[in-house]
Amino acid sequence: MTKTKSFIFAAVSAFALAACGGNGGEAASRDSIRAVGSSTVFPFAKTVSEAFVRSNPEYKSPIIESTGTGSGMNLFCSGLGADTPDMAHASRRMKPGEFADCQANGVTEITEIQVGLDGIAFASAQNGIYMNLTPQQVYEALAANPYGEEQTNQTWADVDPSLPNEPILVYGPPSTSGTRDALKELVLEVGCASNPAMASIEESDEDRYDQICTEVRSDGKYVDQGEQDNLIVQKIESNPKAIGVFGYSYLEENADKVQGLPINGVEPTYENISSFDYPGARPLYVYVKKAHLDAIPGLREYLMQWTDMWSRDGELANIGLVASPDDVREANRRAVTEFPTLDAAALN
């Protein structure tokens, strides 16, 4: 057995012991990368995984699980060892509470890597309904109980007289989707917070605040189309009075069929997402356990594969990833070689 293989075997064996509480019992070791988390990051991670296997046939194909960001963080922070994920994908930054959970469970050294940007796009058919929306208008149109009151808006003009006198009809993602999370976090919550009275509700009853600000109406004005963004494109293409909500990549791929709607006067374009001028822009992250770097075969190489594909003309751009600005991308390329430890202060 070579020295390198001996080291890997020893490290993975240590993981097996950690997985069973250090009691020395038998436990299955793991020789493939495991990542969990965001459904938004999932297609990009799968593409990187496929390229990684082509470039490194000596390693097994990574196991990529679409669990959602929150569930992924729970799994990631559950501890160290072969029965826990090596990485977590996230369509938002790790929360301070999640970081604290990691620390409490022995996941004390974490590296954060921003892999790119995404944008939640509002769109209509080419030559269809066109509006310059604000987060407040979207919230008042789609909330189940705007500001805690009964939802009575039936047309866009009911929301704001400056908008078209057309029925509200929005096709969008389900509650399990990362894009739905973005709709809540980047648009609905922002619109909800525009009402000063909501601040006192947030302080006194955070659960009620979350419900008021993020629960979407279920009376047919917002139509859940499952995880099929292409179906949303088809729906709005066939109905010029309907609005669709999906990831930026689908807007780009179907530019001959649909048009993007501005938010706060800013169009959903690659450049506006890249610069964060567009209100629906958000960074996408990968979190990795430093303790797993040398214990799981190929983990370092897999992370390096991301850096080969995340540029503006890289393979991930072809499926809708918006490249981070040059300086951010370079800083995160260094993170993939130096693995700085994330500090709690950075999350506040």
What does this structure look like?
The protein has helices at residues 3-19, 42-55, 69-76, 96-104, 135-142, 156-159, 178-192, 197-204, 206-214, 229-238, 248-253, 270-274, 299-307, 326-338; strands at 34-37, 63-66, 87-90, 110-125, 170-172, 222-224, 243-247, 258-260, 281-289. With 348 residues, it is α/β, with parallel strands linked by helices. It folds into two domains: 3-117 and 283-347, Periplasmic binding protein-like II (D-Maltodextrin-Binding Protein, domain 2, 3-Layer(aba) Sandwich), CATH 3.40.190; 119-281, D-Maltodextrin-Binding Protein, domain 2 (3-Layer(aba) Sandwich). Strands 1, 2, 3, 4, 5, 6, 7, 8 and 9 form a nine-stranded mixed beta sheet that branches. Helix 2 (42-55) links the parallel strand 1 (34-37) and strand 2. The longest helix has 17 residues, at 3-19. The radius of gyration is 22 Å and the shape is globular. It starts with a helix and ends in a 10-residue tail after the last helix.
Helix/strand layout:
Elements: H1 3-19, E1 34-37, H2 42-55, E2 63-66, H3 69-76, E3 87-90, H4 96-104, E4 110-125, H5 135-142, H6 156-159, E5 170-172, H7 178-192, H8 197-204, H9 206-214, E6 222-224, H10 229-238, E7 243-247, H11 248-253, E8 258-260, H12 270-274, E9 281-289, H13 299-307, H14 326-338
Parallel strand pairs: 1-2, 1-3, 5-6, 5-7
Antiparallel strand pairs: 3-9, 4-7, 4-8, 4-9
Quick structural gist:
This protein has 348 residues and is α/β, with parallel strands linked by helices.
pLDDT averaged residue by residue: 88
Which CATH class of the largest domain?
A: Alpha Beta
State the low-pLDDT regions, or none.
1-28
Shape: globular
Work out the strand percent.
Answer: 5-15%
Radius of gyration: 22 Å
Distance between the termini: 47 Å
